[in-house]
Amino acid sequence: MMTYILKLAKNTKGAMDKILVTLLLVVIGVGLVVGLNTWMSDEMDTVKDAAGSKITEVVGETTGE
């Protein structure tokens, strides 16, 4: 693997393009993971709040309040 990278680096035509594309894909991947994690956290909080209010509503109906 290391010999392939060194061979690719010696070949200046196209080597820099491939490295830049790889770095771009890594940055996009990290951004997607962080964005998905943030979105899931927000959605989880929303679902918890909705479930809590519904549970309180149902418990209030069954106890006669």
Structure description:
The chain is mainly alpha-helical and 65 residues long. Helix content is 94%, strand content 0%. The termini are far apart.
Short description:
The protein has two helices and no strands. With 65 residues, it is an all-alpha fold.
Name the structural class: mainly alpha
Average pLDDT metric: 84
What fraction, in percent, of the residue positions are helical?
Answer: over 70%
Note poorly predicted spans: none
- The N- to C-terminal Cα distance equals 70 Å
Q: What is the molecular shape? A: rod-shaped
Based on DSSP secondary structure assignment, what is the total number of beta strands? 0
Secondary-structure map:
Layout: H1 2-10, H2 12-63
Keywords:
single chain, mainly alpha, rod-shaped, 65 residues, 0% strand, 94% helix
